[in-house]
Amino acid sequence: MNAGTHLNDLSLRLLGRAFDQLDPEEVRVVQAIAARAPSSRDAADIGDAQASTGDRLADRVAAVGGSWGFIIVFSLVLLGWMLLNSEVLQRFGLAFDPYPFIFLNLMLSTLAAVQAPIIMMSQNRQSAKDRLTASVDYEINLRAELEIMRLHEKLDQMRIGELAAKVDELCARMEQKGIS
């Protein structure tokens, strides 16, 4: 029996469909069962391997920009900017952005315009990681279910074999006693 026939027979027996009609996840599970190889994979490793440099950069920017440390430091910088330009530097006539802080407003708008799409890219990547994790979880669950079904089949075959042996033994005893 060649490998293709074996995979098709296994697919028909376990999933009730021909091998060429299976989803990619199901194909990987049937192949792993046929090869008696583990089918678990780490979704984080797969996601990291597929990530581009831009994806990794977006994740780092989102990690920094969405942290309490960033919020606190940024708030202190804003407060310092406003204090410097309203009290300290204005006394000497050196305020580079006096009240109403138009330059500060421009910088904040620019930061928001750049940071928001980067954070959205990171969220989209996280969503893709979640889908990949769900796919890997599905494969593991399917593999476990199919292996349990195979074990049930083996147990049923063992029981049938034991029953057949008992019937044969009973028939042999009946023949010895002359009962037909």
Automatic annotation (TrEMBL):
Keywords: Membrane, Transmembrane, Transmembrane helix. The keyword Transmembrane applies. The lineage of its organism: Bacteria, Pseudomonadati, Pseudomonadota, Alphaproteobacteria, Sphingomonadales. This is DUF1003 domain-containing protein. It comes from the Bacteria. The keyword Membrane applies. The chain crosses the membrane at residues 61-81, 101-121. It comes from Sphingopyxis macrogoltabida. Pfam families: DUF1003.
